[in-house]
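Reply to dn_fold:

You asked what the input looked like. This is it:
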Amino acid sequence: MTLLLVFFILLYSISSLNLEKFKRAIQSIQVSLGETNPRVGLMDLVNVPESINQNFVIENLTGLRSREQEILSSLNSFIEGQNSSENILVHVKDGKIIIEMRGQVLFASGSAVFNDSAGPILNEIANIVQAYTEYNINIKGHTDDVPISTPQFPSNWELSAVRSTTVLKYLISKGVNPFRLTATGYGELLPLVPNDTSENRATNRRVEFVLEKKN
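and this is what came back:
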């Protein structure tokens, strides 16, 4: 494991590396670790090219970040056009792009029926996600902690699940590949803020779109 770590450090930090010098460097490290008969390892580097170009690694990392920035730019332009910067938020976490639609952007409290404003917003989301087919989308429904008990929604679990599924079906109707979509309801389980004010409860009532790059 130590040698493998060293290998990748050297691979990343040196733009052009002579194979024989690299072998000697690895052998020196092995001796310092107490190996009396040092071996180069990693199949004796038989598949390692004579020169290792750092640019290949950098270009691929840059490409990933550039694609991510494209999506963020598209989303931010859309949000600015909607004048909804307080209720539609975008951020990146653990390599995933997360779109949060809070409060009554899509649904009224206690309802899984779209508001009048939901259609244009979801149409734009559909357009954006269709332009970046290398990402899957997990739609997550969340509620506040105010109990609900109706024939349609016995609890907040059902409400959040139906909301996320309703959004999923709408995106499919707009041409998004259903195999890229999943829907999950979390009820009041994952609040962003304490449910101690009406404003905070509105914040916790949200639908999240989590864009994750396919493996």
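The domain at 64-213 is CATH 3.30.1330.60 (60s Ribosomal Protein L30; Chain: A;).
Hope that clears it up.
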